[in-house]
Amino acid sequence: MHTAQKIMKVFITRRIPQEGMKILSQAGVCKVSLWDSDEPVPRAELLKGVAGAHGLLCLLSDKIDTEVLDAAGPNLKVISTLSVGFDHMAMDEIKKRGVRVGYTPDVLTDATAELTVALLLATARRLPEGVVEVKNGGWSTWKPLWLCGYGLSGSTVGVIGLGRIGMAIARRLKPFGVKRLLYSGRTAKSYAAEVEGEYVPLDTLVSESDFVVVSCALTPETQGLCNKDFFCKMKNTAVFINTSRGAVVNQEDLYQALSSGQIACAGLDVTTPEPLPTDHPLLTLKNCVVLPHIGSATYSTRGVMAELSANNLLGGLQGTDMPSELKF
Ligand code: NDP
Ligand code: DGY
User: Fold this and answer.
1) Radius of gyration, CA atoms only, the chain
2) Residues in domain D-isomer specific 2-hydroxyacid dehydrogenase NAD-binding (predicted)?
3) Is 107 in the pocket of ligand 2 (CB under 6 A)?
4) CA 268 vs CA 98, 123, 161, 291: distances in Å
5) Is there a catalytic annotation at residue 280?
6) 289 has a pLDDT exceeding 90
7) Which member of 2, 54, 280, 293 is catalytic?
8) What integer best gives the mean pLDDT of the chain?
9) I need a surface site. Which of 106, 171, 202, 279 has the fewest CB within 10 A?
10) Which atom of ligand 2 lies closest to the CA of 81?
């Protein structure tokens, strides 16, 4: 006899691209409730929405902690995050409860690497300053030293965290004429040979690089890694770029380093908090370019991320393979 399949409950914490919604609605295995907004779900609504859910599709701005897991209760089988980063989730607690986790590696690597290169060039060559000067009448004539910056040709680039995105950044930067490509992390990578990457201790990377690019995961070890001590070791002419997570940087120390001329300039796609308050001291500095966490923001990338997170969710609900399951 055919047993009717049980419809499972899913909560989605935000509007997501329709590619993902379509997959879920066509699957016919779950009833979706959605925080139907482009703004973050209020905490109380998250706790209410997740109650009794079998699946949760969340974003990097949702803190998935014990309280949320308790609110969800024992039905919860899978959490699918629309991100590759998973520092917003209490992994130990999730593991303890046997909940599977899906995430979105690889599909956003190219977009994020591309944005990192764009931010690096915009910061080092002072593009935002130049645009402002054109508009406000500051462009009086061609001047030999006006708006000069730093170029990649013949430079040393240091990548902190030569993972998927770090390697994609290195691949894109090398053809600009980078002379040495240094990287640091927990282990040397055989694939670094492709970019002639030299595995060096962090101190060496920081003191010898003209461009320091942070692309590691946020972990207890990397939290606050870029602090006073770190910036003091950098060259006065060096450019600092972070597209990983804001908390890898001590922002007070970065402000001091930028305002005192300890380092030349910084480009950040990620901050703490997000959004960065409009009166934050970093935003008063001409030598600091801040973007609103748009590393993976291309239409196609976000569409594929939504598809992948929907398929991850379905795999978790049905107890089958997930296209990108986080093994932890
Ligand atoms: P990967 O897991 O491929 O790479 C992460 C890297 O972090 C690894 O190479 C790892 O090095 C390194 N790492 C871990 N611990 C340390 C440490 N203690 N010191 C130095 N390096 C360390 O992830 P992805 O490349 O796919 O993504 C990286 C991060 O980028 C994400 O976690 C996310 O936070 C961020 N991101 C930001 C985006 C944006 O919009 N700005 C978009 C997408 C991602 P090792 O292997 O040696 O441990
Ligand atoms: C991630 O995926 O971790 C990014 O920060 C957003 O795409």
Assistant:
1) 22
2) 117-295
3) no
4) 36, 9, 16, 6
5) no
6) yes
7) 293
8) 97
9) 279
10) 2
